[in-house]
Amino acid sequence: MSEILCQWLNRDLKVSRTVSPKSFAKAFSNGYLIGEVLYKFELQSDFSEFSESRGSTAKLNNFSRLEPTLHLLGVQFDQNVAQSIITEKPGAATKLLYQLYIALQKKKKTGLTGLEIQTMQPQTNLRLQELRSEAFREQRLNRRRQNEIMAKIQAAIIQIPKPESNRTLKALEAQKLMKKKKEAEDVANEIKKFEALIKKDLQAKESASKTSLETTDQTTTDLLNTYSDDDYIKKIQKRLEEDAFAREQREKRRRRLLMDQLIAHEAQEEAYREEQLIHRLMRQSQQERRIAVQLMHVRHEKEVLWQNRIFREKQYEERRLKDFQDALDREAALAKQAKIDFAEQTFREKEVHEKMAAERAQARFEKHYGICAEILDQILDLCTKVADYRLLTNNLIPHKMMHDWKELFFSGNPIYEQTSLKHGVAESTAEYLIELEKRNLLDRNDYEDYKNMVGEWALPEDMANSSPPSNNYILGHVLHRLIEKSIPSQDAAAEMELPSYAVKGCLLGKTLSGKTTVLKALQEDFPIQVLSVDTLVLEAIQAFHDNEQASGIKPVRKEHKGDPLSGVKEISRRQVQDSLSVPPASGIVIPLKEGVKSNEAEGIKPSDSFLSLTVRAQLGAKSEQLLKKGRSIPDILLVNILVNAIKNMPANQSWVLDGFPMTLNQAQLLEEALTGYKKKYKEAERKKAQMPTLALGPTPSKEATPLPSAFDFVILLDISDNTSLDRMNDIIAKEISHEISHESIGHHGASISQDKNGDRNLRDQIHHRIVGFLDNWSSLEEWFTEPQNILTRVNAEVDQGALCQKVKEIFDTEIVNKKVKVDKKLEEKEMDKKAASAEAPTTTSPLSPEAEKDKDSHFHREVSKISPGKGRTPSEIQHGKQDSQHEVKGKKVSPKGKPQGGKAPAKKSPGGSADTSPTPTAPGPPKPGSEEWVYVNEPIPEELPSFLVPYWELIEKSYINHIKTVLRYLRENQHSILSYLYETRTSFKEFLRRPDHKQDFVSQWQTDFNSVPEDLWEDEETKAELHQRVNDLRDRLWDICDARKEEAEQERLDIINESWLQDSVGITMNHFFSLMQAEVNRFQDTKRLLQDYYRAMESKIPLEDNKKFTRVPLIQLDSKDITENQLRIPLVPRISTSPENVTIKPKVKALLKGKIDPSLEGLEANFEVDEKIVIDTWQQASVAISHMVAAEIHQRHIEEEKETPPVDSKEKSPQSGTNKKAKKEKEAPKKKKAEKKGKGKSSPVTEVSPITISPEELAEIERKNELKLKIKEEHLAALQLEEVATQFRLELIKTKALAVLEELVTKVVDVYKFMEKWLGQRYLNEMASIEKLTEVARYYIETATKIQNEIYLGQEDFYINGDIKVFPDAVPPSRPPPIEKEENGTLTIEQLDNLRDQFLDMAPKGIIGNKAFTDILLDLVTLNFGTNNFPSGWMHLTQPDLQEITSLLTVNSEFVDWRKFLMVTAMPWPMPLEEELLETLQRFKAMDEAQTGTITFKQYKQAGLWFTGDEDAKVPDNPLDPLPFNRQEHLIEFFFRLFADCEKDPPLLDYTQMLLYFACHPDPMEGVYRALSVAVGTHIFQQIETPMLTAEKTSLSTVSPNEEFPEAEENVTREERELKEEKDEKEEEIPENANTEKISLETLLKVFGGGNEVLDANRFASYLKIENIYAENFMKTFQDLGAKNLEPIEVNILLKHPYVQDLIANYVDYKIPDIKMILQRSEHAQGSDGERSPSRLTEEKK
User: Fold this and answer.
1) Could you give the CA distance from residue 1598 to residue 871 in angstroms, rounded to a whole number?
2) 715: Cβ–Cβ under 8 A, 6 or more apart, which residues?
3) In a 3-state reduction of DSSP, which class is residue 694?
4) pLDDT per residue over 1386-1418, tens digit each?
5) What is the model's pTM?
6) How far apart are CA 1388 and CA 1382, in angstroms?
7) Which residues 6+ apart lie within 8 Å of 1350 measured at CB?
């Protein structure tokens, strides 16, 4: 517990004094730290008055101030606890601190301040706490007064110190000596003072006696003169004067001493008197004591009585206060608990909402992901499909295929086939339906291309000049008229209701978005009716309960004819009467079983009393019945209730719906009930579906204008889900506060409980309402924006006033817009009425102008202007210029202007004005089908449309299906052709690559060739024999190639002679002939329909056509004999039936005849035959159509001749004119073969002979003749238009067929060409490979060498396989292992390993005494002969040289690190830079995943050092020479063996310790900083720059002199460069945040000889019993720098300490000793004595 509290105080609170478990009681004994803890939590505001002193006053002050704060936190604290803490009782401070820790943690969680805690405490506790604090304060003041009195008394007493008791003799003697010394010193001081005083007195006397001596000088001289001895007298006088002066001084001293003693005595007496006085004052007599006791007793009794009375009053007051406080606490607890529950409920609701939102977002994501995945799959399918067909077609994909794949991709259908449609499927699976949809899509696209002559069926170049045929408007007019006769229009009977100025709308939004509030504000400013579905349902139920009768309700407005609301009552009655079961609307599932219906019927029976109720009451009864059964009201019932309410409102009353419709189904039902849009939409769709597609009418079908919506506006109050939830929570929070305030008083109301229940239900349902709105809003938004954008979004997350104002502005705008729309509609209706009244006079007598006998050229124009047919308006008639444009373009031009002349001729009187009218030149009469042509609309039999309309539908359907089927077969045939050609190419390539047996002969020849003995290689006869064998092999291989060539040619001929091409061409031709048959069939059926229609218009009986339909012959694919009786379709053989010579295109001739290969001549002949058959078939179909048109015209003339009756002479003149005109018209088509449209027809101009017939009869006869002539002209024009269109289609099919056949033959010929090319190229390659084989064989024969590698001759490849050898190679000589040589006194790796093993046995820890080390080296050097421990350069070292080497390696003046010695003697090796050391350290740490500080040899090799092996070593050319020795690679392995701990298995390397060795540097200070960088892990910057000594530079330069050691020149230059770079780096500016890393004491001891603490267990261990001499100093340094517990400190702070700076400057263990200098000096010394140096020895060896 104490450790936890100490950690809390030291780390978390960071108090001013460090607290440990041992000094815990002492640290808190004065209360200062407790006050500091409370002050950090802002609970002790008077902490500045606390004292750190350990005096009793300070402790009393501190704890008296702590008491109220501790009581405020609820910590138990009184005088006993304070006394225990002050006296440092064990466990007292710990217990108090633990209670304080718990209380402060609770306060921290609640986040309350001290003032809030104080206000939350009960009043009784505060009062008791104040009383306790006052009592404690009084006690503290009394004690302070007592202390002051005692201090005064102590100040008045003179303290006389007692002499210390010295019990020993030595102490007594020493005390006596000290006393004597002190007395002597006092005497000496007194003497000095006395002498000084004497001197001063003498000087004073001398100055005072000068004046007296002058007056007595004469007397004294006289007296003295009387004596003989003056000097003696003077001496006596002087002595007497001195004695007198001395006596005077002694007297003064005595008096001064007496005065001092008197003063001291008086002071002592005064103190004694004061003491006696105090004693007397404090002393009392017995009487006084008794009186005092009695008085105190009485006072005590009075005090007890007074205290008891006060205590009782306090108890009463406390009880009252406690009761009141308990009530307040109870209410506060209830309120707090209610708030907590409400917060938890709110939090749970938000979690539920977030979860639902996340689920919706996940669903949207999954849907989007699925769509993207599907699109990506389709893209991949498209790519793979394209890749497949690029392979099939040699990267030439047909445009039609690519277009089909794109259509499938854009339509979302899979490109690859899911299942086959060739065989019928029993049940319609999903794959079958998908494939069927794909096929129908491609069929529709192909049919549209064929119909519109675009894409693949675009006009070719030879037909580009001829314009496509125009639409047959005559046939379109006939079909439109027949369809209109069969389906009469129902719109004429309906009369539109007068538009109303009432504004209709609805207000939508989420729950609690403010709809009702906004509508209330809107209702205050505008005269509108707000309709709420909930309110209307309640009113309907209430009307049922009130038994509201139909007679009591007066209709507010009358029903208009065609009112969309008129059927609402009937619908409702029918629903109620039908067992009162309302059918559920689409989208809402309400299961109504039979049992439920019977129960419902039992509940409410459609009796007379029930049917007498109003519609609202009946709907309310149904609603109540459903609600009682726990079901929701169906949408259709809600809509009926709402529509009933709208119907009962005034006509011009504006209304707004509150939150309705909520679903798309409700919106559709409401729209249908208010506007009836479904019925009109279905009727329009039905008419559109029955309109013909092959022939368009003269007037374009006008698209139905969108019906007006049931609403004028729709406003969405848009709020977020969180806002809706927050508003719900605000309502519930207000309810909770209202409940608490009323619960204490005890008032409850019914309305409050109802509102509460409603809000509770709303709270439970708000999530479902929000989710329901979000699910339905997307469809609702689309419904309100697609036809007419009437939706307006309003941000409802604003102030209520601003929101109401915004909605009011929108409503104002809608009122203005509605008024403008209604005014515009009224104006349009007025204009329509005026136009109808103006047209009435002109349409009353349409035939009045025909009574005139004017034969002018204006006759037909006046008829076309005055009596237009049905569906023709004057605005659709154009003048001659527009007609000419129509003829050129061949398309209908919609006229927008009026014809020339207007309606002026129609206003002429019907009287005889024919003779007086001039005959101006004018354009010819209008042509049938043109814009000016007036179609004949004579009545037809009623049963004719019922027969002809289905007949035309059958014609159209069969034509479309026939075309689609043929185009589908053509499309599939193209795929099969590509697949067959690809298979043909690949199979022929595989045939060419079939295996041959040439390699067997080659291998046998090579074996025989290598088996020839070596002694016969140079024999000429042998060579000749071998050459002959090569010739035989070549001939045999040539025979194989020739045979394979003949087989390939035969295979190609077999492929060419197959019947596939003829069958494919025949099938393709039959498909195109089927297209021609479809066109011919359509023409024959159309001819029959027109014939029946016009004959019915002429009131003639339809003709019975006994002729068979014209059949286009097909190609006979097999050679079977079939009788003509068995054939329904004629077949023709593959021989042209036309004797005419058909010319073939020169392009195809060049393709076929330009070939040298005669095998393709049959293809040319077959193609010519097929082309002739196509042209012949086309001519037959074209001639057949021309014959049918001519026969129809001839039939017309025959009928006219038969119908001509015998007339009188008076009637001959007009009849002769008509007969002549008929004959002319009969001869014209015979000559032109129906290729022209009867342009020579004009109204005949004959002279009028005098007649006796009445004008009325003549006019009637003339009108009938003109009508017959017009019918005939229109009929023949329609036939001619159909003939031209059919002929154009047949020619297009013929051209397309020839192009397809030509393309097919071209592809096949290209394949045959490629086959021939591949065959010839392969034959040439095989022959070339045989020639290469022959050349190689002859070369080996001439060079007389064996062929070791296998000779490979396969297919068309020849090469010598280097991977396979016929006989094995000779074994090459093995290379000897590399050997390291001694060079320039450098130890070899073997010597280094031997020294390491010896030192490891002697001193495993690496530390050895310097004397012992010198002896070992001396023994090794002197005994080196035969052991090879050192190179020859070391043999000349003397004992002083070895001692010098030892001194360079000495550590702490006594020991040597033999590992450092071996590291130095292993030089030269690359000196590492500090960056390289750090990089190596990081690599080692990366390998050390467990962070143990050690690595294995495998990890060591993976990490590597800062240098690698000699990779550029040159390999000797002689295989017998050894490879050069890679010293650096072996050095890397040696360093691991040197520094690793070999006692462990496997050996482990302390990589940090090893890198500390390599941190050595010629500059010792630089070496120390490098070691610090390695120990810390980052670069350590030097604080003070220390220039390198010149001696060190010279020593560095003499490490490896170039003239003595040329091989080390590179290393020396590298070291110099590294030192220069390091020096340059040190000269750089030190960054501000440098050396901020922390270093521990352990790491520092490791850098500065920390390894000396480990002792070696051997015979030299007695010399090594030392410890790290820096440990104590480093500990002191850490403590000086503020690390009392020796925690790590920053490097920059450590480097600033003087001791560390001095240590770094003088530490030489990280200096590289210069051993090479000693070796060099020894060699020079030996060389000067005439002995051989190592260099000479090496020269002699060489």
Assistant:
1) 123
2) 505, 506, 507, 508, 792, 794, 807, 810
3) coil
4) 888 888 888 888 888 888 888 888 788 888 888
5) 0.52
6) 6
7) 1003, 1006, 1360, 1361, 1364, 1365, 1366
